[in-house]
Specification:
The complex is a heterodimer of chains A (305) and B (292). Chain A has 305 residues and is mainly α. Chain A has helices spanning 3-19, 26-33, 42-51, 53-63, 76-83, 85-100, 110-130, 136-145, 149-156, 158-171, 175-182, 187-197, 202-210, 214-220, 222-236, 255-263, 272-294. Chain A has two domains: 3-19 and 104-304, Hypothetical protein af1432, CATH 1.10.3210; 21-100, no CATH class. The chains are: A mainly alpha (305), B alpha/beta (292). Chain A binds chain B through residues 172, 232-233, 235-238, 244-253, 268, 271-274, 276-278, 280-282, 284, and chain B through 20, 26, 28-31, 91, 94-96, 99, 258-263, 269-275, 277, 280, 292.
Amino acid sequence: MNPKLESDLYAQIGKLDSISTAPAILKPLLDLMRLPSEKISMEKVVELVSYDGAIAAQCLRLANSPLFGRRETETVRAAIMALGLERVRSVLFGLCMNRVIPQDKWVITPNAFWRHSLACALVTQQMAKRIEYTESEKAYLAGLLHDIGFLVNSVLYTEEFRECLRRAAEQHAPLHVIEEQVLGFTHCDSGRMLSEHWGLPKELVDAAGCHHNTSLLATAGPLACLVHLSDLLCRVSYLGYGYDEIMGVDLGGDAAWQILVPKYPALAGMDLVRFTLDIDGAMDEIVATVDSVFGSRKFATPAAT
Amino acid sequence: MTPDSNPGNPAYLKIRDLIYRISGIYHPEGKLYLLVSRCARRMIALGVTNPAEYLEHLTTRGNRDAELRLLLNEITIGETYMFRHPAQLEALRNVILPQILDTKGFIGLKRLRFWCAGCSTGEEPHTLAMFLLEEKDKLLAGWTFDILASDLNDNSLEAARAGIYGEYALRSTSEALRRKYFKEVGDKKLQANDLLKSQIRFERINLRDDTKMLFQKGMDVIFCCNVLIYFDLASKRRVVQHFHSNLVPGGYLMLGHAESLFQVDDSFRLVHFPGTTAYCKPAAALAGGGKK
C-alpha cells in the first residue's frame, strides 16, 4: 500500500467512531473475550447482555429457538445458561459489530460474514488444540476477529467494496486479490489499522493484518498462521464470503504450515482429511446458530444487488 | 430384539476407530449415526444386540476378517450412483483439468488419460464420460481423451459393460443427459448409448497384480473410490505407489469422500477443493518422492 493511501486510511478509521455508533458494551466485551472461558464471570456477562435491550432480546430469541430446544427461557440469565458462555460471547460480538455497520452499508451480508467469522473462530481454536498451542481462547478470538477489516471497507468505502465483491464473485477469485486491484489495499490492511485503533493485543492485530499476506506470516507469529490456514479451510468448506471461489489448496505446502511445523510438530501428525470431515460436522451447528441470530436470508448475488 | 442404536455407546467409537485404522474411512461425530445404522444391519444378521459384542465379532472372533468385509460393504453401499460427487467434477473442471491442459498443451500433447480403478458396475466411468463429452467443445476443445475402467469382479465388469441402469443409479442424472446419452430398454431402465459406451474401455485388472499395474502408464487422473478400504496396509501402500508411477507429474488421484492416505503414503500432496479433496503427484517430483 502506498504511504499516502495508508495515512488516508488511518485518518478515515479515526473518523469511524463518529460515523458509526459502536455499542457501549463493545469495549468491555472485547476485554471479556480475552479471558479463558473458566475465568469469565457469569454475573459480568449477564450485566453486559442486560445493558442493551436489543441484544438481550436477541439472546432470548436464540435461546428459545428450536436449535437449543428451549421454549420457555424468560430471563437473560437462563438464556445465557442455555446458550453457554462461549456461544454468548460470539453472539454478543456479532450483534455489536452488526450495529457498527449501518444496515445500508453491509456489502457482504451479515449472515455470510458471521458464518465465515464463527467458522474461522472454531477452526482456529480446534487447530490450536490439536497442535497443542496453549491459548486456545485467544485462537478463537483471533479467528472471530480476523476479518474486521470488512467493517472498515463496508462503512468507509461502501461502493468500491461492493464493486470488489461483485468482481470477485464474477471471477470466482479471492476477495483480497480484487481489493488490492480496486481499492489499493485489502481488508487485512484496514483490519490491522482498526484493531490497532481499538487497542487489541498484537497477536490479534497480526492475525487480522496478515492472514492473506504469506510474506508477513513468518514475523507475525503462530496465531496469524493458524488463522490463515483456518480461513482457507472455511473457504473450501463453502463458508467463505457468500460466493463460489475457484480454489485448490495444498495446505501442507502452504507457507503458514511450513512456519508452524518446526515449532508445533503435532501439526505434521494431523490427518487433514479427517480434520476436514470433523470440521464439516461442526459447521452445521455454526450455520444453524448464525441463521437463528441473523436470519437465514440467502446471500444475494452481488451481480443482482 | 433391536440393536442398541445410541451413537454415544463407547463400543461404537471403538468400531469407528477400527474402521478408520483398517480402511481409512472416517466417521466424524455428526456422522456416527450412519455407522450405527450400518452396524445395526450386520448385528441383526448375526443376532447381536450389544455393540460391544459386535466389536468382538470384528476383532477377536475367528470370522473377523469376513465380518469386517461385510461391514465395509454395508458402509459403502449406496455410494454408487451417477454424479454422486459433484464437488469432485467441479474440482476437475475448475482446477485440475485446466492445470493439466496447461502443462500438456505446452508440450503439444493433446490427449488425456483417465482410469477408474475399481469401477464396480460402471456408474463412475459413465459419469466421467458424460462429463468429459459435455466439455468437449468447451474446456476440452481440440483435445481427445480415453477412459480405462477396471474391476476385479467379472460380474460387476459385465454389468458395467452392459451399461443398463435403473432409477437409483440415475437419480442425479438430468433429463437432458439421459436423453443425450441413454436409450430406453424397458422395465423403466436406461442403457448407455453407443456414443457413451465408446468412450470407455473396460478391462479386468487386479490392483494387486504388479505386472499388470506396471503397464498402466501416462494416466492424468486416477479415480479409486472406496476400493483401497478393503486392502491391508501393505497392499494399500503398494497399490498407491503403483498409482503414483502410473500418473504423469501433476496428475491426480481421487479417492472416496471420507478416504484418507494419512500414514499410508506421503509421496502425494493432499489438495483441498471446495467440498472435496484429491491427491496430486507433484509436477517436479523430488528424488524419494518428497518423503520426510
